Amino acid sequence: MIGCFHSVGLPQRGILEAIDRVAAAGYAAIELNAETLPWAPAHVTPDTPADERRAVVEACRRHGLAIPAVGAHVGMVADDGAGRAAAIAFVDGCTDLAVDVGAPVVHILSGPSAPGTPHGEAWRWFADAVARTTEHAARRGVTLAVEAIAGHLFHGVEDYHRLARDLPGVAFKVNFDPSHLEVQGEDPSRVVNELADRIVHVHLKDGRGRYPDFSFPPLGQGTIDFAGLVEGLARAGYAGALSVEYEAQVYGFRESEEAILRHGIAILDELRTGGAP
User: Fold this and answer.
1) Distances from the Cα of 218 to the Cα of 41, 46, 206, angstroms
2) Which of 125, 169, 218, 222 sits CB 3.0–4.6 Å from 208 for a disulfide?
3) Do residues 180 and 210 lie in contact, with contact meaning Cβ atoms separated by under 8 Å?
4) Got the DSSP string for 116-135?
5) Strand 208-210 to 213-215 pairing
6) Which tens digit of pLDDT belongs to each residue from 222-248?
């Protein structure tokens, strides 16, 4: 499995600086963040100009870094058609960017449904968005994956099964982030056991507590059995990225960039050699 760092963990750095730092820390890959968060601007978006895309490719080539995924997270179940269309256009634009930088996977989320929107209606909107963005991705030679997020319309293991039933023949895949399942009281190993054939990207982010009273602490300070999950992934034949996604600062943890990067690579080394964080 490939040791990767999600650029969202370096929100104060531009993407070229982030690439330099991730490479210097010993990672083999960098995941590109296209989501704008209250604490982290996007490193790339569909509006990223061609010369900057080329610069990203060249910097990664110079350092020997792969780009396994682009995180195209935007709410996709707005209660107005224009908002939903804009979200699909954003994801498709991220897919086009992924082609330019050589990333094989783009992953998405549903976002929370608007207050008062019937669950069934919001679900139909999201299923339609998944079908449409997956079709565009397939045309471009990119894989579209869905991430379950605590507090969102699409949030749990059963949602993956329901979406597969509702979209027969639509080849959406799974971006597996165990932290969101852990803080909802779900067993993350269910994804490995039940959906291994759909997993194309994996986030390493710890979790503890129960939604909505929860946190995503530094790796090893939560309650996730990463060693067991990675062992299960290996048995299932997963050979893709394990991407360290650091958001612990949002929950009051204060670590330097150097400590974050160093700790992440140490955890990756332990997991890939059969140890436990």
Assistant:
1) 21, 30, 6
2) 222
3) no
4) T--HHHHHHHHHHHHHHHHH
5) antiparallel
6) 999 999 999 999 999 999 999 999 999
Class of 2-272 per CATH? Answer: alpha beta
- DSSP 8-state secondary structure symbol assigned to residue 223: S
pTM for the structure as a whole? 0.96
Strands 199-204 and 173-176: parallel
What tokens were used for 1? 């499995």
Model confidence over 152-182: pLDDT tens digits? 999 999 999 999 999 999 999 999 999 999 9
Nearest one of 114, 22, 35 to 71, comparing CA atoms: 35
Q: Name the strand (E) or helix (H) holding 84.
A: helix 81-101
Q: List the one residue out of 254, 236, 155, 251 whose CA is nearest residue 200.
A: 236
What is the DSSP code (8-state) at residue 25?
A: T
| Chain-centre distance for alpha carbon 76 | 16
Q: What does DSSP say about strands 29-33 and 2-6: parallel, antiparallel, or unpaired? A: parallel
Alpha carbon 203 to its chain centroid, in Å, reads 6
In 3D space, the residue among 66, 79, 64, 83 whose CA is nearest the CA of residue 31 turns out to be: 66
Amino acid at position 17, single letter: E
DSSP 242: E
- Dist CA 194 CA 200 (whole Å): 14
87 is written with which tokens? Answer: 């979200």
Give CA–CA dist 79/125, Å, rounded: 9
Domain ranges for the chain, please list them. 2-272
C-alpha separations of 119 from 48, 123, 160 in Å: 34, 6, 16
